[in-house]
Design goal:
about 150 residues, mainly alpha, 2 strands
Amino acid sequence: KEQALDWMLKTEKQLVTFDAKETYKAGFERNKPVKCLIEDLLLAAYLLSSSDKSYSLDEMYSVYLPACKVGGSREEQLLLLPELRKVVGGILRERQMEYLYREIELPLCRVLASMEVIGFQIDQEGIKQFGQTLDEQIASLKDEIMELAGVPFN
């Protein structure tokens, strides 16, 4: 697994993954950002059926390539990835979800991975000021509600 990951972090070839966020995280953890990732079949599966409880390559093959009887071996699964990618890509286009997938979800995947590994800064003063603004708005709304009700209440 470690050798495959090292190869993925060094390669200039276009990568198709099944869980890009984990691949991105591994790259950030090693200070070797992934550069050539172009597909995430797990993310595509989620977009195509967001109500499913779990996603696996086996499930994707049975749903999107039912005619191909893929056994449990990784080799068989890997050999059919290009076909699975083609079918899933076609469905994303057909459902007009390709823009969402390519322009929003895939880039967001990288951002979320970096946030999980590297973290992010927050504007503490801005948050404090926002909290004060909310407190003022809440107080104003309470007063307005009491006035409309005509009597104080909890």
